[in-house]
Amino acid sequence: QVQLVESGGGLVQAGGSLRLSCVASGSMLIIGNMGWYHQAPGKQRELVADITRGGNTNYADSVKGRFTISRDNAKNWVYLQMNNLRPEDTAVYYCTTRRRGGGVYEFWGQGTQVTVSS
After folding, report:
1. Best label site of 2, 15, 31, 69, fewest CB within 10 Å?
2. What percent of the chain stands above pLDDT 90?
3. φ, ψ at 30 (rounded to 5°)
4. Phi and psi for 110 in degrees, rounded to 5?
5. Is the Cβ–Cβ distance between 109 and 97 less than 8 Å?
6. CA–CA gap between residue 20 and residue 12 (Å, rounded)
């Protein structure tokens, strides 16, 4: 099993920045891709960005050019740098990971709230 703990959420004005962090513990050898999802009230949980162990990244169109995902494999951290935040970015952000070779994100953190005021 893998446990994930997020930190770094908060309240910020539109145009501001936040950096989310997530540390993994447990069965580190099974970890493959890591990523961030968000869920706004009344909406489905959606992929924001994810990253392979080799550093290949994938972003939702809505955050391209504004958000950057990175990871530290040696220390089991994944980060999401969020710049030029917009009110529509307001959501709970979840860190996630899946097994190497797996196709489904199965391990999740508890989530951290990000609120962007206009």
Report:
1. 15
2. 87
3. -90, -10
4. -80, -15
5. no
6. 13
Residue recorded with tokens 């706004």:
40
**What is the predicted pLDDT for the residue at 73?**
83
CB-based contact 25:3 (threshold 8 Å): yes
pLDDT score of 29: 81
Query: What local confidence, expressed as pLDDT, does residue 46 receive?
Result: 97
Contacts by 3-6, CB closer than 8 A, 24 or more apart: 3/107, 4/95, 4/96, 4/97, 4/107, 4/108, 4/109, 5/95, 5/109, 5/110, 6/93, 6/94, 6/95, 6/109, 6/110, 6/111, 6/112
Instruction: Quote the pLDDT of residue 78.
Output: 97
3-state secondary structure at position 74 = coil
**Is the Cα dihedral 71, 75, 76, 79 positive or negative?**
negative
**What amino acid is encoded at 105 in this protein?**
Y
